[in-house]
Amino acid sequence: PVVIQCLLRNPTNFRAGVEEIVACGGDCDTTGAILGGILGARLGVGAIPKDWSESIWEWPNSPRSIETLAQNLANGLEGKPIEVVPRLILPFQLLRNIFFFGIVLGHVVRRLLPPYR
User: Fold this and answer.
1) Which of 1, 2, 8, 3 is nearest to 35 (CA)?
2) Of 41, 44, 38, the residue nearest 17 (C-alpha)
3) Residue 43 in contact with residue 68, Cβ under 8 Å?
4) Is a pLDDT exceeding 70 seen at residue 66?
5) Which of 17, 50, 69, 92 is geometrically suited to a Cys-Cys bond with 10, CB 3.0 to 4.6 A?
6) 3-state secondary structure string across 8-68
7) What does the domain layout of the chain look like in residue ranges?
8) Is 19 a residue whose pLDDT tops 70?
9) What is the maximal distance between C-alpha atoms in the chain?
10) Is the pTM of this model over 0.70?
């Protein structure tokens, strides 16, 4: 319900919609992702604030590699030639995933210890 409300209140303003839904609290990462996906599909990538997209650091991937992947997918579906596909550096990707798994596992273990909060 809160996603629908924020969508109806901010149908053309990506930043205001996402900021409003995050300010609601609760499971705001999920509701923010849902609203961001809907507004992004509706308004296009140009509606996403540049300061938000430029600060994404998802090593070893980048916003540019994701854009290239999306363009290659669109070209492939339309029968157009595909650009050079960016390769994943699998050893680095594996190290990154192990690192984040350790963080998640540490968080789970911490939640099991007193004072159980």
Assistant:
1) 3
2) 38
3) no
4) yes
5) 17
6) HHCCCCHHHHHHHHHHCCCCHHHHHHHHHHHHHHHHCHHHCCHHHHCCCCECCECHHHHHH
7) 2-88, 89-117
8) yes
9) 58
10) no
